[in-house]
Amino acid sequence: MSGKMSSMGGNNRIFVGGCIAVVLAAIALMTGVRTDYVFNASYVVLQFIVLASAWNILGGYAGYVNFGTSAFFAMGGYTALFMIKMFNAPLLVQIIAAACCTGVLGLGIGLISLRLRGIFFSIATVAVAIVLETVILNTDYFGGAKGLQMMRPEPIAPFTSYDTMLFFVMVLMAISAVAISRYIEQSWIGRGLRAIKDNEEAAECVGVPTLKLKLIATVVSGALMGAAGAPLVMYMRFIEPVSAFSLNYSVSALAMPIIGGTSSWIGPVIGALLLGSVQQIVTVTISSELNVLIVGVLLVFFVVVAPDGILGLVRKLRTKNSAKGDAKGGAQ
Amino acid sequence: MFSWDLLIGALVFGLLLGCFYAAVSIGLSLSFGLLDVPHIAHPSFLVAGAYATWWLAGFGWDPILAGLFLAPVFFVLGVVMYRLYYAMFEKHGSDAGLRGLAFFFGVAFIIEVCLILVFGVDQRLVEAVYIGKSIDFTDDLRIPMRLLVAFAAALLLTIGLTLYLGKTYMGRAIKAVAQDQIALSLMGADPVKVKQWAFGIATAVTAIAGALLIIIGPVDPQLGRIYIGRTFCVVVLAGLGSMSGTLVAGLILGVAETIVLTFFGASWAPAVAFGLLLVMLGVRPQGLFGR
Prior knowledge:
Chain A is mostly helical. Chain A has a domain at 35-243. Chain A has helices at 2-6, 8-32, 36-62, 69-87, 91-113, 118-137, 162-186, 188-198, 200-205, 210-229, 232-236, 241-244, 247-260, 266-285, 288-305, 309-331; strands spanning 148-149, 238-239. Chain A has a two-stranded antiparallel sheet. By secondary structure, chain B is mainly α. Chain B has one domain. In chain B, 74% of the residues lie in helices and 2% in strands. A two-stranded antiparallel sheet of chain B has the order 1-2. In chain B, strand 1 and strand 2 (142-144) form a beta hairpin. In chain B, helix 5 crosses helix 6. The longest helix of chain B is centred in the first third of the chain and has 31 residues, at 4-34. Chain B is globular. Chains A and B meet through helix 5, helix 6, helix 13 and helix 15 of A and helix 4, helix 9 and helix 11 of B.
């Protein structure tokens, strides 16, 4: 453990370097690649990196399973829609407003259900998703079931098209989400959340402020999901409840961290990159139903066979190899 | 807008529907309420039961007969499910929370998508002598026969299961395992065997409830999502593991839903169960008849 602590400075430098590399790669992609398909596919994968990282802050670190990612995502989108209709707000304001609203939503759900056992929190998130969808369906201001079409404004200075601007925003958002989830994992919050996951009663007894920590995690996680949903309106130029509240977001945001590995910030990123790419390829080449089925089957497979995800598998392989190496060294 | 006739109609419909809600939830009351298994996939089994009934009805079977025939099949399915769940999660204890939930969520999702792939997204319905007819009390109050049949079957099912748990040897063993598993094993009974039997019963009951589901109205693969709300609402409202409470809670939900449906419109109905559930979780999570 102490070795890990001392190498943290170096780790941070590597992390920041990685982030800069991602931004440069994104700029290269924006100027170099002109096919819409690659562009859209990368946008969706980035969006899933945000959602999966956000889900993992509560689900992976603390063990409270959120089934209602779609509620936060869609509420982010509809908050943005409200800001556009009401104030004609710019994109940044839309994102901030969406994050605030969904953060408060997370706080509300948390206050109701986080005192209870984990399954009640999970069911409360499903409940909120359905209740919100019903409210939106019945509200004409938001377009009801038919949805609303929106015009895009002019892109801001350095960007030549709104698509590239949204893409760049999503890149920054993905990096921030990963950085926040990494910060939380390594800070006192992460340690507290892990204690909650291991044994909540014991944590409470030794003075870990469990409810406070869980609420922090729910608010941050919810705010990030909402922020990811905010650009949806402008990206699709259209918003409609059934697709915005699609169960696919909820299942993917849960499956990606579990497939990648929930114990560390890199797990959701691996999961989102892998599963997101597979989804993009399968949806286009075979069918969208099969794509959904693959997500479900992979989720169950990993939960049963490799509960620590790909990260766990890699770790196991490494310790095996090093054990082999040690054995060889000992024999010589 | 308001009229007494409408209100009385809504009440009568609500009570009939509520009994049906109790029947679709009682399996969950057993598996989640008593056995503590986070069975999110329960509504998907319900819809799967409805589709199996539809398939058998294609050969000219009566839906209720089909449900009774499916019950033993689902019993075996339930036993297998519990064995899997036990071997994978419950045996190891601690982390079953997250993994168990994710597992059942994944299973629910797989069932839904498989139903879509096999049967398509269209609604399915069955035919029987009592479907499509109604008994007219007044001009405003017409009760469809299908609702009455489902009501009667649901009432029998719910009362039957309550009596089974209260009066028989095995039923009491199931209640005992819910109360204190270690004490039961000290008495020389195997808690895992009792639980697997109980989970089998819960799943068998779900098959019959699935048959009632398709009698009440047309079924589509995504119906399970709405029933997550209805079934968990009933179970939480009743208080975990309270069988007689399940019936009362079902009636409350049924009446609440039909009143909202009558006075605010059908598009608000899906939110009733989930809204009630959220209120219960916030105000009285132990339920009306909770321990």
